[in-house]
Design goal:
- The chain has about 260 residues and is α+β, with helices and mostly antiparallel strands.
- The chain has a domain at about 180-255: Arc Repressor Mutant, subunit A.
- It is built from seven helices and 13 strands.
- The strands form three sheets. It has a seven-stranded mixed β-sheet. A three-stranded antiparallel β-sheet has the order 4-8-7. A three-stranded antiparallel β-sheet has the order 11-13-12.
- Strand 5 (about 95-100) and strand 6 (about 105-115) form a beta hairpin.
- The two termini are about 25 Å apart.
């Protein structure tokens, strides 16, 4: 894998158009499928509704978003209703996020948010376009990247350093169990996973996760039994091998 961009064979004059050409060409040349390990992914025809690339071997689809600076807490995305409708679809694309440096014309960061981390709770509607706009009433969406656990951000390139492919594939497999659950069920799981990760240590206790009771209650105001729900999610994560049960009230994140 080479991080530098090739000089585009196009006559685009704007920086954004050139950057789009560079980044898309780079993905076609160097990116691989983190699901099956296939060495190449292919481009969809221009203006495909949601996805930009697909894996010819396993049919995983990918949406690419790239920018110069790091991505913040929210990432702009496509039409809100379409995005929500696609959440449960088998071909909902994985999100590929790239940061690049125009000076060196190279990739700085590249990570993928697998599609099984996309739930309704992390999709936010933008303000509809005004009545005078060309697409009056059109409502875009934002992906709440800060609601995604770190285990849902699988880094291929980090800080200009290429991670070993076997580590990327292993990271992908760790959370693949989430695909067997509906988007509605995954919402609670992902928020509990994020709470556990935010503790910043491998070994943790049930009481430490209970400390997020108010936070989770604010996220799910209709649930009046937050502590039992936390225990349920931890049991599920234990049964799927994401965490280990150490002793009564004590757990450990798997490395």
């Amino acid at each position: 894998m080479k991080l530098g961009f090739e000089e585009p064979q196009s006559s685009y004059s704007s920086g954004s158009q050139k950057a789009r050409t560079w980044t898309e060409a780079w993905v076609s040349a160097w990116a691989y499928c983190p699901h099956c390990g296939s060495a190449k992914i292919s481009s969809f025809p221009n203006n495909s509704p949601l996805a930009d690339f697909f894996c010819p071997s396993c049919s995983e689809e990918f949406e690419l978003k790239s920018q110069r600076g790091k991505f913040g807490a929210k990432v702009l995305d496509g039409e809100f209703n379409t995005k929500c409708e696609r959440l449960a679809a088998s071909n909902n694309p994985n999100l590929m996020l790239m940061n690049y440096d125009l000076g060196s014309r190279a990739v700085v960061n590249l990570f993928i948010v697998p599609k099984h981390f996309f739930v309704r709770e992390i999709i936010e509607a933008r303000k509809p376009l005004s009545a005078t706009a060309r697409r009056a009433g059109w409502t875009g969406s934002k992906i709440l990247l800060d609601r995604v656990p770190e285990s849902g951000k699988i880094h291929i390139v980090q800080g200009g350093v290429i991670r070993a492919k076997e580590l990327v594939l292993a990271d992908w497999q760790k959370t693949l169990f989430l695909r067997s659950e509906s988007p509605e069920t995954r919402g609670w799981l992902l928020d509990v996973m994020k709470c556990v990760e935010s503790l910043g240590k491998r070994d943790f206790t049930l009481d430490e996760v209970y400390a997020f009771e108010r936070h989770l209650g604010d996220l799910y105001p209709g649930n009046q039994n937050v502590k039992p729900k936390i225990r349920q999610q931890l049991q599920y994560l234990r049964d799927r091998g994401f965490i280990d049960f150490v002793s009564r009230g004590s757990y450990r994140l798997r490395s």
